[in-house]
Design a protein that fits this description.
single chain, 447 residues, alpha/beta, Rossmann fold, 2 domains, 6-stranded mixed β-sheet, binds adenosine-5'-diphosphate
């Protein structure tokens, strides 16, 4: 395929007197797969329209290989730019093959009909887009995903150098999503330049070389997924808190929304739950409790621990241990202080070895002080003991001495809610002076 650069310079678009796009400038090199992202109404479709010669910018130019598309003939542009729109109302009873053949129109002369070669190209395009088997089906009767693949085939039949797609995976199930995006990725590897609107930021991060983030008609950020998909950018544009993580298998970024709106009428921030966890066993509970408005503390976990990582994202006060080391006397003392301030202590079904055995001591102290202790999990005690019997003995004793044993996260939440309701007297604890020495995040939550 030939190589075409797409350059947008200072584009401004209006509908009537309403300005929709402003100061839009960027360049896409041949073979780049660029994702256009942004909230609903931010101007993504309008931008695609301005590039595909549907909506002439009021200001600025769109250059295809250095030539202003609005000075080129529509047919010339259509030979270079294929468009897969979001919605295509096709009222007549065209078959899928006939729809794809329409992609050949820019290549035909005035009143010229399609030749065998055009049929060949259309069939090849359908094969590539995995819809050749739909050739004789009526387009209007196809499912959303089938229609999408036919429309991609139509755009490919134009033999374009640039492909513009408006939400190419909108109607596709996960299998076809993967298939279409892998196809687009492959085509971009063959020097087809692709600009596609994405709603799914995780898919955009996975497949695109770079991203353009639009916000209220302007470019908020442009660059690699790492540069664009920062929690700060996402919060500013989408008004939502996200964690940005790297997938352990695909190595691409993915976003997880968290602590979103929590319309609690009955605030729970007068109740502190301390989690004794590790190895990620506390993270879902940490998240659920915070979401419901509880105060949460965590201890003592290693700085290599997944639960520790969660405390840093969720801004939870935590007592930390150096990697692979048991708690020092200092850390243990701080942990005991933290436990002493809790209204309830939850021990997850974390495995217990010599490194975290002292954590059980902290739970025992809580129980002795009359702080309710909830032990959660279905793993039998003997399977969690990596101390040759010591941990097992202590776990059994905790249970015998009154720890509440529950199996699921939901059950923990129910028990905690019951405790909170019946323990209004515990409220005064939150006014105690904050701990100053705890490692990890300072304990402002107690101030
Ligand atoms: P996005 O694709 O990011 O959801 P659009 O480009 O479709 O955003 O729309 C951007 C803004 O332009 C929206 O406020 C939308 O209501 C407005 N808009 C879109 N099409 C038209 C139109 N034909 N006439 C007037 N306003 C429009």
């Amino acid at each position: 395929m030939g190589e075409v650069t797409l350059k947008i310079e200072n584009v401004e678009c209006t509908y009537g007197t309403t300005r929709i796009l402003k100061n839009i400038s960027f360049e896409i090199k041949p073979g780049d797969f660029v994702g256009l992202i942004g909230p609903n109404g931010s101007g993504k479709t309008t931008l695609l329209k301005s590039i595909s010669r549907v909506l002439k910018p009021r200001v600025g130019i769109v250059l295809l290989d250095g030539k202003d598309v609005y000075t080129l003939k529509a047919k010339e542009v259509a030979k270079k730019v294929g468009v897969v729109p979001q919605e295509t109302p096709i009222p007549f009873q065209f078959t899928a093959l006939e729809i794809v053949l329409m992609g050949r129109t820019p290549h035909l002369g005035w009143l010229e009909s399609e030749k065998e070669r055009d049929y060949e190209i259309a069939r090849t395009a359908m094969k590539i887009a995995n819809c050749l088997h739909l050739s004789d089906r009526i387009f209007a009767e196809l499912s959303g995903g089938e229609k999408q693949r036919v429309l991609i085939a139509r755009a490919l039949a134009q033999e374009p150098k640039v492909l513009l797609l408006d939400e190419p995976t909108a109607h596709l199930d996960i299998n076809y999503q993967e298939e279409i995006l892998n196809l687009l990725k492959r085509l971009s590897g063959e020097k087809l330049t692709i600009l596609a609107v994405f709603h799914d930021l995780n898919l955009a991060a996975r497949y695109c070389d770079s991203l353009i983030l639009l916000n209220q008609g302007e470019i908020e950020a442009i660059g690699t997924p790492e540069e664009v998909l920062t929690p700060e950018n996402i919060k500013r544009v989408y008004r939502i808190e996200v964690l940005v993580k790297r997938h352990p298998i695909t190595n691409s970024l993915y976003l997880i929304p968290f602590l979103t709106s929590n319309p609690q009428t009955d605030a729970c921030d007068d109740f502190t739950v301390h989690l004794v966890c590790g190895g990620g066993t506390g993270t879902p509970l940490m998240h659920s409790l915070l979401k419901q408005g509880y105060r949460v503390t965590v201890g003592a976990v290693s700085t290599l621990d997944t639960d520790y990582e969660a405390t840093t994202y969720l801004n939870v006060p935590v007592v930390t241990l150096p990697p692979f080391s048991p708690a020092s006397d200092d850390a243990h003392r701080i942990h005991l202080e933290l436990v002493g301030r809790a209204d309830a202590v939850v021990l997850t079904d974390v495995p217990i070895g010599w490194g975290n055995l002292k954590n059980l001591e902290a739970v025992e102290v809580a129980l002795r002080k009359g702080i309710p202790v909830i032990m959660v999990g279905e793993t039998p005690f003997e399977k969690r003991d990596f101390t040759g019997g010591e941990a097992l003995e202590r776990l059994i004793r905790l249970k015998d001495e009154g720890a509440i044993c529950v199996k699921s996260l939901n059950e923990v939440l129910t028990v905690i809610e019951t405790l909170r309701r019946s323990c209004r007297a515990c409220r005064g604890k939150s006014t105690q002076k904050p701990l100053s020495e705890a490692r990890g995040r300072p304990l402002e939550a107690f101030e």
